[in-house]
């Protein structure tokens, strides 16, 4: 895996593939930030603006969909994809 960017731009919708993608590898930091923000109880609007670089006031549907799909992918990556845990972990 190559070194991920610390603050990459995101697509409107995260991947929904059954395997890890290059996009997932490039967005590891984004996924971590999303999971941390959720754990801290941050509002989706704030997270969409700060982490995903989307304006929830101007484009609420787009920002909400991007937030939801990326958060779901972050959870999948850590629980099923094992990108952030060793492949030997369960």
Account of the 3D structure:
The chain has helices at 22-26, 28-39, 44-50, 60-81. Helix 2 crosses helix 4. The longest helix is centred in the last third of the chain and has 22 residues, at 60-81. It contains four helices and no strands. By secondary structure, the chain is mostly helical. Helix content is 51%, strand content 0%. The model has no long low-confidence stretch (mean pLDDT 88).
Write the layout of secondary structure elements.
Layout: H1 22-26, H2 28-39, H3 44-50, H4 60-81
Helix pairs in contact: 2-4, 3-4
Question: Which labels suit this protein?
Answer:
90 residues; mainly alpha; 4 helices; globular
Give a quick account of the main beta sheet: strands, pairing sense, barrel closure: none
Beta-strand content bin: under 5%
Q: Count of helices?
A: 4
Classify the helix fraction into a percent range: 40-55%
Q: What is the overall shape?
A: globular
Distance between the termini: 20 Å
* H/E series: HHHH
Number of strands: 0
Poorly predicted spans? none
Mean pLDDT: 88
Radius of gyration: 13 Å
Helix/strand structural class: mainly alpha
Summarize this structure briefly:
This protein has 90 residues and is an all-alpha fold.
